[in-house]
Amino acid sequence: MAEAAAGTAGSAAAGAVPRRSPGPLGAYALLAWTWTRAAARYPASMVLLALATGAVGALDAAAIGLLFTRAPRIAGFEVAEVLFLYGTSALSFAVSDILLGTTERLGQHVRLGTLDAMLVRPVSPLVQVAAEEFTPRRFGKLVPAVGVLALALPRLDVPWTPGRAAMVALMVVSGAAIFGGIWVLTGAVQFVLVDSHGATKSLTYGGAFLTQYPMTMFARDFVRAVTFVVPLAFVNWQPALYVLDRPDPLGLPGAARFASPAVAAAVCAAAAAAWRAGLRHYRSTGS
Amino acid sequence: MIEAAGVVKSFPVRGRRRGLRRSRTPLRAVDGVSFTVEPGEFVGYLGPNGAGKSTTIKMLTGILTATSGSLRVCGLDPSRRRTALARRLGVVFGQRTTLWWDLPLRDSLALVRRLYGVEREAHRARLAELTALLELEPFLGTPVRQLSLGQRMRGDLAAALLHDPELLVLDEPTIGLDVVSKATVRDFLERINAERGTTILLTTHDLGDIERLCRRVLIVDHGRLAYDGGLDELRRTVDADRVLVVELARPGPPIVLGDGGPERIEAERSEGPRQWLRLPRGANAAAVVAELAARHEVRDIALREAGIEEVLAGLYRGDHAYSGPGLPRPRSAVDQRSTVE
Known about the structure:
The structure holds 2 protein chains of 2 kinds.
Chain A lengths: L1 H13 L9 H16 L3 H28 L2 E2 L2 E2 H22 L5 H7 L1 H6 L5 H6 L11 H11 L9 H41 L3 H39 L15 H21 L7
Antiparallel strand pairs in A: 1-2
Helix pairs in contact in A: 3-4, 3-8, 4-8, 4-9, 4-10, 5-9, 9-10, 9-11
Chain B lengths: L1 E17 L2 E17 L4 E5 L6 H8 L7 E6 L8 H5 L2 E5 L11 H12 L3 H15 L14 H13 L5 E5 L7 H18 L2 E5 L3 H7 L2 E6 L2 E7 H7 L4 E7 L7 E2 L7 E7 L2 E6 L5 H11 L2 E8 L2 H10 L14 H9 L1
Parallel strand pairs in B: 3-7, 3-8, 5-6, 6-7
Antiparallel strand pairs in B: 1-2, 1-4, 8-9, 10-13, 10-14, 11-12, 12-13
Helix pairs in contact in B: 4-5
Keywords (chain A): Membrane, Transmembrane, Transmembrane helix
InterPro entries (chain A): ABC-2_transporter-like (IPR010390)
Pfam family, one (chain A): ABC2_membrane_6
């Protein structure tokens, strides 16, 4: 008894020591590592899934290579140039998907009420959702993009100035940031969508809800197609024109070629604002 | 520790579709709740299903943003400073775990240490203490998904307390637990409240929890506070419900006592030789029994007092004398209490 009481007093005093919590990136790394260890508890499934991911990635890269090596020119672009365009955007997308792809599942957490548990921890729920079920297997998504770029870069018929090399890095990073912003936006939208649908359903007007459902599904795919394709035109296309030293067929001012970091910053700011607004309007579940 | 003043949470509810327009009427899940909880208190937060308990808890923890009113928890505005508050708050949801499903409990707890930035030494001491109190040792190495409900709940409690929070918020922590696990959890809560001075707010439907642990209860109904006070006072307030069960030597007409006077009692039910007499509030049971014995040949007598369960059921239904006709009954119990005292 006395011992337990002493322990209580001792630890209460220790609790007053200032604490260092990890920042968002540190928390992400910590959670990713934890999820990786969780996945490692099923070693057979981990190995099989890793092999599958790698195989699919390699096949993807091979198919693209095959496709483009058969057609010598596409819309006035060399094969290597087309592969370069594909590779850079695929790399951006893969990086964003690895880091933030699971934010798309936010709706599930909202519906099941598991988001509540995330909200009472001192770490952003965005980080928690994004790091969820992280495994190194996610890096398999890089395989086709890296493969295609490895094929394309040496074949580009451009002088490799430091400016060009930097631009390639910049466009991949900006592209990843833009896609990342879009992942977060899709997540934020689900606060509202699930919310309104859930409320409708909970009031037993479930029938009406069900008839609306296919439309929402359709709308979601449509929205996804547009949102992922439209920024690409600005982010991948414009800097690529600089790297490839080509005139813009649409005649946009030359500054547009350097605008991708600004676009990325704008998209991320919009995503952050939408996420915060979504959290404010979060309604949780009944229990 | 908690200061709530006129807190309202309303949800827009969409009505049935009529043509192109849908009606939108706000539903007030919490409708102007005010209360204060001092450091070190152990408060029960009760109410029937759908009364607004969980909504209040979620506003206190920053999960939901209040529509209006002012709310301070540990001196912070929960929805604006949710992350800062999370460091000073422990939360346990009885219905779902905050642990990592596939990790051994030990690893989950280690992760909690890192997320809350608890010093390694402090953590070791705290973990040893919690392990002893909650008897975690046998299953520290077991993945959370393989734990029984009782073990998992104890693990969740440990995870919520590792960072030594000032306030512990529990949402139905004993739901679904067997008697032994319930007892362990209750003993534990009582201890950390007494020894460490952790303020505890507990919602539950298990009145055993309340009777055992809470010195003060808040009762919420229809989104409003219906009672705020001690458990004993609550019982006294509603103490009308004492019933004499009388077994007479032979069946007879309904017993009438104290006829003519204001203390007139009439049997409200009779079954053969047995009759039930409801005592008016403040009636002297001994006097009633004496009169009964003088007038009737009584074979046996039992006095039944309303348990806390019946008291609450009556309060929820609003069928006690103090709850005026019709709903809602704003703070009726509190009004009544002031007249009793």
